[in-house]
Write a structure and sequence with these properties.
Helix content: 40-55%
Mean pLDDT: 92
Low-confidence stretches: none
Distance between the termini: 18 Å
Radius of gyration: 17 Å
Shape: globular
Strand order of the largest sheet: 1-2-8-7
Largest sheet: 4 strands, mixed
Order of helices and strands: EEHHHHEEEEHHEEHHHH
């Protein structure tokens, strides 16, 4: 484990490689699973604020699901998450001409319609955060549907923490990330001995 300020970081994010491979998975992570994407409580107002500009990007089913359930819902575990379409894909999913599942929120962001990329849980994936009373755990989440991302990451030699660099900086700041990078270099050097 690596400790930086109020975070405890699994060394797995340094030791494992990962690069999303949309050619292989086609964005299935936004479709599979038994719950919506986690939404931090601090993001709830943002989802409400941006929804009018995201709505035009959504599918009819996605808009209907959000109109019926809300822009976010409380999951079975009591945590906030994105709503689902009939218990399946995320209500914010859109598909491109290749049939890949993409995020309507991110599409609106890329088109400069909004100033928020997407929920931090989505941006950080495959890293998952767990809040405890005295620290935040920063862990690597393994999901078999991401095996192709692990293969591509290994081929390109991109560790998990470098793949999600932008998201980690968004969440914890540049200084935190710089410290993580220095500690990751130390951990890798130590393992080679």
């Amino acid at each position: 484990m690596i400790q930086i300020e109020g975070t405890i970081i699994s060394e797995e994010i340094v030791e494992n490689d990962f690069v999303c491979n949309l050619n292989a998975c086609k964005g299935i992570c936004c479709v599979e699973g038994d719950a919506g994407a986690p939404v931090d409580e601090s993001e709830l107002n943002t989802l409400e604020r941006i929804y009018p500009k995201v709505a035009p990007y959504l599918t009819e089913q996605g808009r209907r699901a959000i109109e019926e359930q809300g822009v976010y819902v409380k999951g079975e575990d009591g945590e906030w998450e994105t709503p689902l379409i009939d218990g399946g894909e995320c209500a914010y999913v859109v598909h491109n001409e290749k049939g890949w599942a993409l995020c309507a929120i991110e599409q609106a962001y890329n088109d400069k319609k909004i100033d928020w990329k997407k929920p931090i849980s989505c941006h950080l994936y495959p890293i998952r955060l767990q809040e405890y009373s005295s620290f935040t755990a920063v862990n690597y989440h393994r999901w078999p549907i991401c095996d192709d991302a692990c293969t591509l990451g290994k081929e390109l030699q991109v560790p998990v923490y470098k793949f999600v660099r932008e998201a980690l900086i968004r969440k914890f700041g540049e200084d935190w990330y710089d410290e993580l990078e220095a500690l990751a270099a130390y951990v890798k050097k130590k393992k080679r001995k």
